[in-house]
Specification:
Arc Repressor Mutant, subunit A, 11 helices, Transcriptional regulator, WH-like_DNA-bd_sf, 46% helix, DNA binding, D-Maltodextrin-Binding Protein, domain 2, HTH-type_LysR_regulators, two-stranded antiparallel sheet, DNA-binding
Length: 302
């Protein structure tokens, strides 16, 4: 018994079953009959020596062993897709592909300069960048959808899974539209911030926890709060709805230089723990990903 008989198509089926939970839906997706898919699942369970899914009236639910194999199946599928794409790129004589993620803070004063250095020497390299919260980015690093990330390690993840190079610290700034009444004040007090409308990161995100703690400690009671992770929507709500928002200091400074917003001078900084360059420990990166990772590693010291 073992996984030697598993094929990539089998792994895709298992992932689809975990996501949809219905034999009929997945059978239609793969162009097979429902009985044929049921037989395939039984054969895979016999080969693995474990029950992978529990059968219920409401559908299929992965067992703990099933969750393990589905998690690894997603990694292998992602690696296979990357390999297929990189072969096409190599055949076209281009410079390879890299996928990495970043939180918003390093984008202005760390990621952009590193990319400038990379494209000066490797103009044809294909780079995909995901912007999101640290927990989402590191889930993608774990599943190998991303080669590495510039973020922080959330408390719920084991730091021993990763190689971590510290990059910088983060200070947050409260920003408003340039025509907001608070933009004319040289210093904004806690009383000024009370009963304002805000647009903030989603509940449960690391930055939202930091911001909520700041609001509680200073006795700030918002009039209303819109929660979103979308940076463009955040900007539109700040500019068009007179809401207060919170951005990382480098990003706030960039927007302020272009006359889009005003960064308020408030009593007390909103500081958060530092972020770093993170990759999965002992993962062997492709030549292109290794090149980009090394440029990022040296850029942090410039």
């Amino acid at each position: 018994m073992g996984l030697d008989g598993f094929r990539l198509r089998h792994l895709k089926m298992l992932v689809a079953l975990s996501e949809h939970g219905k034999l009929g839906v997945v059978a239609e997706m793969f162009g097979v009959s429902q009985p044929a898919l049921s037989r395939t699942l039984n054969e895979l369970e016999q080969m693995s020596g474990h029950q992978l899914f529990e059968r219920h009236n409401r559908g299929l639910i992965p067992t703990p062993q099933g969750e393990v194999i589905v998690r690894h199946a997603k990694m292998l599928i992602s690696e296979a897709q990357r390999a297929e794409y990189e072969m096409v790129v190599a055949a076209a004589g281009q410079g390879g592909s890299v996928a990495f993620g970043t939180i918003m803070t390093p984008a202005a004063d760390y990621v952009a300069p590193a990319l400038k250095r990379i494209f000066q020497t490797h103009p044809t390299i294909d780079i995909s960048i995901a912007v999101g919260s640290s927990d989402v980015l590191l889930e993608d690093v774990l599943s190998r959808r991303l080669d590495f990330a510039v973020c922080r390690i959330p408390s719920g993840m084991n730091p021993l899974w990763f190689d971590y190079l510290p990059v910088g610290q983060e200070t947050l700034r409260v920003i408003v539209a340039v025509d907001h009444p608070l933009s004319a004040k040289p210093v904004v007090t806690e009383d000024d911030l009370r009963h304002q409308s805000w647009v903030l990161q989603p509940h449960g995100s690391f930055l939202r926890q930091v911001i909520d703690d700041f609001i509680r400690r200073h006795g700030i009671v918002p009039a209303s709060v819109v929660s979103t992770s979308d940076a463009l929507l955040t900007m539109l709500l700040i500019l068009q709805s007179q809401r207060l928002g919170i951005f990382a200091e480098p990003v706030a400074a960039l927007l302020e230089r272009h006359g889009l917003v005003k960064a308020l001078q408030i009593e007390g900084d909103i500081s958060v723990p530092g972020f770093g360059l993170i990759k999965l420990k002992e993962r062997e990166l492709s030549a292109s990903a290794e090149l980009v990772y090394n440029v990022f590693a040296t850029t942090r010291n410039l």
